[in-house]
Q: What sequence folds into this?
């Protein structure tokens, strides 16, 4: 569970729905037609903007936004330092046994390449190409949501324009102007609400998560290449710690009983 | 057929036209004058923004957006690996026979250069110059549509202003204010609708497609240069696979009967 | 004549003026005060934004936008290849005779440097510095118009606010509200129209033209340096053709009677 | 105390609250519901946009914005030059004694690395990685506030839409339209006020402070590496002074009694 | 005197004030409260956005915008070429005598470094660091004004919202709606006017001026390093002329009586 996403969305819905109920007459805020125009129009524009393949990623993008897999950078550093120690003592080939236990497929791939005796230059090349491609896929994911965040207020306005035009052109009784405008404005409300509580923030969350992941991957590349080069594990640790904020590591060291496999990520 | 473009545009039109018909009085939404100002004005601004040469590309840009030619990166990798194997066994010159069968003109050109015995540095230079130029042409194509996406709501507003000024200045009977405003707002509606269902999403689709194509071309450059350098086909495959998402390749390998020429692209 | 600029502006004016005349009462759309505020205010803000020297370039920027000097890249390639052939056969010094006939001052300068026996590194340096500076001047030209495109709707709104405030504060007879608002809105209309038919599209046209010119200049640098290095003319041609789209060159070759000096540019 | 933040916020509140009180009827501007929607909605959207870890940094980001720790670049240069002199006379190892007295943890770390005999290449690597990571954390901090600055006017508008819809749909007595709209508009006012006096300016302040800090850190890297390379202290001073504006240093030298430890930062 | 700034601001004020007086009732456009909210609010937001140190630069930024010190690039080139000739004939050390006469402190510093026998690599390093830092200070100056340009319409709207809420909530007599709205709109007018005639254009002028200065400084670095390397003065001149537009230099040469110290800058 990604707590912040769940808290944020719950809070936003409770507040807005609460404000609506406090005003009495809540039923007027429900409009199937408005939902159709805003959600449908946003979806339509998104279909035109991306390919079916890209859109198939939406469920997994939502899953990433709602589930929490905090990346534990300390754990990764510890794993890399352990591998470095072993490689130094018993040779690079013995790392083969540890590959199974590595959770992260990217790190696994890197260690596999090293064990296979791939040239360092090629390992770097492959790992960086993989990272660059991953980054471009992530950025596409985030762009799908920010595109939706731009389209939904636009279709909200389109719905309101349709409503206004219909209402104004049939207006016989000026006293109905008020209620007619109320109905027309609901679509704008839907568009603004969807964009500002869902689409734009979700696009941002995906962007933030992607940046975190890239830092971790860069740390892994650094670590793998250092292991392959047979560098001193102490120096490797020093180098990798530079990727983390000072405070974080200090805190960490303060906890006496460091349990590598359980440490919770604290990526401030 | 690019399914997502067709689905999106159909869905968007059905929804908006549906909402209009549900409101009764649909005829009021048709206005030749509004279409003239919005479409004509957008076209006029686009003519000033670009050259005739650039605008001649619009039909082919639309064709690219509406037709689907999914790039099958696996297929490309397989072709490159096959060429690498052959080149290693029988020499670079024998690749001449395979050039005919290569569909992609860019890849064909690259292999031709290698067969002609062009210096590796020059091959790289030519291929990268071609790619850079192609990228800049693609980006111009996408900019034509995003410019139209910016101009069409602007001319929508211009049309509404003209309508409002005419209506307000002749207003004798305040009861006609409503219907007058309704007519004036239609131009804004047209502008917003065209921008958000067509121009902006199409600009985005072209941008996305261009990025995909560039990755494939970069993969081709990498492959061609590796073949020319006489690298091990297994290593070439490893390098090129780094351009694809992990999952995609795994899926691929799961399918036992790999038929190189039919594999459908799954560029997630 | 730059056809697209002329067509676009004519079309835009005809459409908007047409829509105004169709509505009858066209005289109300003329307002000297509105023109003064919008055009004058835009000019005032532009004066503050740039220096007199920069603004002196406006007439020549307009001339560039309205006159068409399509850059014929094939012609340039042919000239460069011819020079390369001659230099190879008869020596670099004999190029002196051809300098006179070169129209483009940039290319002329480059060949002059080569004939003067300037070091290749220095030729590259000088040509690239000239190009970078030219690019920065072009970008300033385009920014003058895009700044005007941002200022004119703003001063349109300022004029409308002034009109509204005057009208509302003197409002005795509510029945005059309509015609007062009509007058006030004219300034907004002027601002939006000027920005979207003139300033923003002209800024874009200048940007597009600049990019084209830069590609041609880069092609020239590549060509000049290759000539100086005494490279094979066939290879030079190959390298320079990489700057052009594939189709373009094919078309070209299809025309049997290639007349180097007359080929019309087809910079798609 | 960061004087400018405190002055700015006080001034802004005094002016706006003053204008409200001058208009009499100030009580109408208090609305718990509006605060709930604007602040709550902004918070909700921010929760969705970032992770809990990121949001935990808000208090310390506020502290950075409100407290003033002017970075005294002269002091840093003096410290570095002193260290350089000592290192030259008595050897790098003797710097160990001075580490305790260095306030800045980043500089301390750098000197520690040098004292430990770390390879120059590795020192540079570690210091630059730390700086890059710090920069990315800073930029995230500033983005939290600019995201809030974008969300708060949006939720202001959402609140106003809700109010308008409720008011218009229940409107029996047109004479109440005025007061109803007044209430609805308060939420927009809150959103605009929060964004333009708090969120957007605070985001900017954090960005400006981060840039200053990065320049100082770059100066430190330059200094540390020069010390390690055993460069002439006079030359080191010359190099580091290039990071400061001319005037600043001149002023500095004018003050006869330079007291290294007290000089107040004048980062113009 | 920077003519364009003075002309622009005078023109803008005359036009807008003229339009106000033409409408009669000009007194209504004066509102101390509106000025307080717009100017005060903008200032408040700017204080929060920047540090006191940064804001102290505002007067000198205004001075830069209003006074004209056209940079005479020809003069600079002539000085550099003269120095190059002297250095070649009489040795680098003799340049010491000329330092006094150099007006530009940046150029002076560079020549001083060369005379002091500083290593070329270090001269380049110091000059480029100084330039980079200067650029970042300039960009901060321009950002102060563009931030004000964003804040002033926002506080204009805030003032109008306050006015509207007060007016609407006390509205007993609907006939006063007009004059109340007129008063409320004045704040929006102030905000828009300040932003579009002052803040945004001044930010732009500073940006343009900074770019010009950077080009000149880059030209100086190129010149100083060439002098130090003992390059041929004719070649140095050739290299430096590449920084200027072609026409400018031609014009220059056309004037027979070139008086190096008086030539007026024509930085088109």
A:
């Amino acid at each position: 569970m990604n707590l912040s996403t769940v808290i944020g969305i719950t809070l936003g819905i409770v507040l807005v729905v609460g404000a609506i109920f406090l005003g009495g007459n809540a039923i007027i805020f429900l409009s199937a037609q408005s939902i159709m125009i805003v959600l449908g129009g946003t979806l339509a524009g998104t279909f035109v903007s991306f390919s079916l393949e890209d859109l198939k990623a939406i469920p997994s993008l939502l899953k990433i936004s709602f589930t929490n897999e905090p990346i534990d950078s300390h754990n990764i550093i510890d794993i890399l330092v352990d591998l470095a120690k072993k490689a130094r003592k018993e040779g690079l080939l013995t790392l083969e046994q540890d590959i199974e236990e590595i959770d992260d497929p990217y790190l696994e791939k890197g260690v596999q390449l090293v064990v296979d005796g791939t040239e360092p230059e090629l390992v770097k090349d492959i790992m960086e190409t993989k990272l660059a491609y991953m980054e471009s896929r992530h950025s596409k994911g985030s762009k799908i949501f920010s595109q939706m965040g731009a389209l939904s207020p636009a279709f909200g306005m389109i719905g309101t324009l349709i409503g206004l035009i219909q209402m104004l052109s049939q207006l016989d009784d000026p006293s109905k102007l008020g209620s007619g405008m109320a109905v027309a404005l609901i679509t704008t409300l839907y568009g603004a609400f969807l964009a500002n509580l869902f689409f734009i923030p979700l696009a941002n969350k995906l962007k933030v998560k992607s940046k975190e992941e890239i830092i971790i991957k860069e740390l892994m590349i650094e670590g793998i290449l250092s292991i392959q080069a047979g560098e001193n594990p102490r120096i490797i640790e020093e180098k990798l710690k530079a990727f983390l904020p000072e405070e974080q590591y200090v805190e960490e060291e303060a906890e006496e009983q460091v349990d590598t496999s359980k440490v919770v990520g604290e990526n401030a």
Remarks:
- The radius of gyration of chain D is 26 Å.
